[in-house]
Q: What sequence folds into this?
């Protein structure tokens, strides 16, 4: 957070760099495409166990809908499980499938009650934070229910080490297919609405840097950089 027809994984070379592109050709089945992701002949390919970073083309693609006939498939179940695994491994509150290298319209959000003890109470209240159990949506649709905009600092695990203030709508409604494969709707407000909007942006190939107040963009560890004479590392693994 604050950090989605048929699909094919196609490598192509452009300017001496290797890109992974997902597209929905009729020539290859979803199941065959998925099996290619996990073949032992390929290494370090999606679904990743880390967050893709800004610059990766997958973060700028409009993610594809999960075919209706595959929503309850073992392949989609495995992708969702991987998303949740990465979400919790990095102690995040939201993740979208493109962030593990899979250009499909799937998001997962979770705001644990334990986060509250790590934040000043004034921050928790001002940002309208509240606990939210793990929530997964496949092919989600977002509808704005409260057009009041709130501006708060926001970060993203795909833009590691930076943050900026971003305006988001105060209230939204999510609809789509939940982790159990059933149609579902969920009304969210405050910080949880922000998380959902952030993750939905990922499905459209957008990042918070596209919406941010550029004057507030900053390195989250700038003070440590000064204190430690620049000897600071930003990890992309955990």
A:
């Amino acid at each position: 957070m604050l950090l989605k027809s048929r699909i094919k994984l196609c490598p192509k070379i452009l300017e001496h760099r290797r890109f992974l592109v997902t597209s929905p050709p009729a020539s290859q089945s979803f199941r065959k495409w998925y099996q290619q992701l996990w073949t032992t002949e390929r290494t370090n390919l999606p679904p990743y166990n880390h967050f893709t970073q800004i610059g990766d083309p997958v973060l700028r693609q409009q993610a594809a809908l999960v075919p209706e006939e595959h929503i309850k498939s073992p392949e989609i179940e495995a992708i969702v499980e991987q998303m949740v695994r990465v979400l919790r491994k990095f102690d995040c509150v939201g993740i979208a499938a493109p962030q593990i290298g899979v250009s499909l319209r799937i998001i997962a959000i979770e705001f644990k009650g334990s986060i509250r003890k790590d934040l000043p109470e004034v921050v928790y209240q001002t940002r309208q934070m509240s606990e939210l159990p793990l929530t997964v949506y496949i092919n989600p649709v977002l509808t704005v229910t409260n057009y009041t905009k709130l501006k708060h600092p926001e970060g993203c695990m795909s833009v590691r080490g930076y943050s900026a203030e971003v305006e988001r709508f105060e209230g939204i409604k999510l609809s789509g297919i939940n982790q159990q494969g059933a149609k579902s709707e969920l009304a969210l407000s405050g910080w949880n609405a922000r998380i959902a909007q952030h993750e939905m942006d990922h499905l459209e190939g957008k990042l918070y840097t596209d919406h941010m107040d550029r004057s507030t963009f900053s390195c989250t560890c700038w003070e440590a950089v000064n204190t430690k004479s620049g000897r600071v590392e930003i990890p992309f693994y955990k």
Residues 3-24 have pLDDT under 50 and may be disordered. The chain has one domain: 8-227. Strands lie at 8-14, 17-23, 94-96, 106-111, 132-155, 162-177, 183-189, 218-219.
